[in-house]
Design brief:
Number of helices: 2
Shape: rod-shaped
Number of strands: 0
Structural class: mainly alpha
Radius of gyration: 49 Å
Strand content: under 5%
Length: about 130
């Protein structure tokens, strides 16, 4: 009789433990599902932000590429300006060499005046009439 009671008590004790373990397992599953649900909700709510961030990143990359192109175009234009300046300066030096330093824009160089006189060309506007 005692053995049956002892076995019955042991069975009750084991069944009680199993019930507690099942309850703990249910609570853990509910907790895990809650966490998974929160993670999924957070991911879904962050998705529009991720799309916006991606769009902004793409726009930034495009702007950076355009900026590189503009920077290169500015360098090319700067090179053109320097080359043009050099050409103008060379032309100015040549003009000074041909006309003499300190010549005025209203008077032709002396050698040109001499050529005009030799060929009897008019040197003044009044002489054209």
């Amino acid at each position: 009789n005692r053995e049956k009671e002892a076995k019955l008590e042991l069975k009750k004790k084991l069944v009680g433990q199993q019930i507690r373990h099942v309850q703990q397992l249910q609570a853990a599953i509910i907790g895990a599902n809650t966490v998974r649900l929160k993670v999924e909700i957070t991911r879904l709510s962050a998705q529009p932000l991720e799309n916006i961030i991606q769009e902004k990143s793409d726009a930034l990359k495009d702007a950076q590429e355009k900026l590189k192109d503009y920077h290169q175009a500015a360098k090319n234009l700067e090179t053109d300006v320097h080359m043009t300046r050099e050409a103008v300066e060379d032309a100015r030096r040549e003009a000074i060499r041909l006309t003499g330093h300190g010549a005025t824009k209203n008077e032709p160089p002396e050698d040109v005046k001499n050529i005009w006189e030799e060929e009897k060309m008019p040197s003044k506007l009044e002489e054209l009439n």
